[in-house]
Design a protein that fits this description.
It contains seven helices and seven strands. With 197 residues, the protein is an alpha/beta fold. Strand 4, helix 4 and strand 5 form a beta-alpha-beta unit. The longest helix has 24 residues. The two termini are 25 Å apart. It binds glycinamide ribonucleotide (GAR). Glycinamide ribonucleotide binds next to helix 1, strand 5 and helix 6.
């Protein structure tokens, strides 16, 4: 059974979908811990499912490296097979990537390499594109530059604002993320092979 740590910053709606999927019979992965860089609303989902949580407050550290060292210490307590970044709004420090790569995946609300970074939805709207998308990637040291594991297009409607477009993207993200975690757990997707391809 694949053990998974999920890192979040916000509402954790994608985390919740993964928790529900992992709770179902026959799913080949289980979430063992949820961590965050702030008092994330999404911790409530972990609590509801009886999953332990840890907090490494970004605001308590002087540097990204110091924050990363504590994050790594917390992750190592659980030693997960896979780390899922599900709305973690921080770039993972190189020490964390080095320790767990290629076993770290990230969901992103755009069709990478289009619109990387913290404002993927806003940037797609500002660019005036007719379609954007959702992606699940392997995390490397860049900003959303790792190998793409799954992605799908989502149309932009003329009436969309950022919130409406993001709400249309998220169900697609959830489906892709659950399927990627399922395939990794089932041995159908090899992250090392995907990263060296
Ligand atoms: C998701 O759309 C995720 O892809 C995005 O934050 C949202 C979190 O929603 N992450 C990024 O933009 C990372 N660059 P949630 O907290 O409701 O799951």
């Amino acid at each position: 059974m694949l053990t998974v740590a999920v890192l979040i910053s916000g509402t954790g709606s994608n985390l919740r979908a993964l928790l529900e999927a992992a709770h179902g019979a026959g799913f080949p992965a289980r979430i063992i811990v949820v961590g965050a860089d702030r008092e994330a609303e999404g911790f409530a989902h972990a609590d509801e499912f009886g999953i332990p949580t840890f907090l490494v407050p970004w605001s308590s550290f002087d540097s990204r490296e110091a924050w990363g060292d504590e994050l790594l210490r917390q992750l190592d307590v659980w030693n997960p097979d896979l780390i899922v970044l599900s709305g973690l709004m921080r770039l993972l420090p190189p020490a964390v990537v080095a320790a767990y790569a290629p076993r770290i995946v990230n969901t992103h609300p755009a069709y990478l390499p289009e619109f990387p970074g913290a404002h993927g939805v806003r940037d797609a709207l500002a660019a005036g594109v007719e379609q954007t998308g959702a992606s699940v990637i392997v995390v490397d040291d860049g900003v959303d530059t790792g190998p793409i594991l799954a992605q799908e297009r989502v149309p932009v409607h003329p009436s969309d604002d950022e919130a409406a477009l993001h709400e249309r993207i998220k169900p697609v993200e959830r489906r892709l993320l659950i399927d990627v975690v399922r395939r990794i757990g089932a041995g159908e997707l090899d992250l090392a092979a995907a990263s060296s391809a």
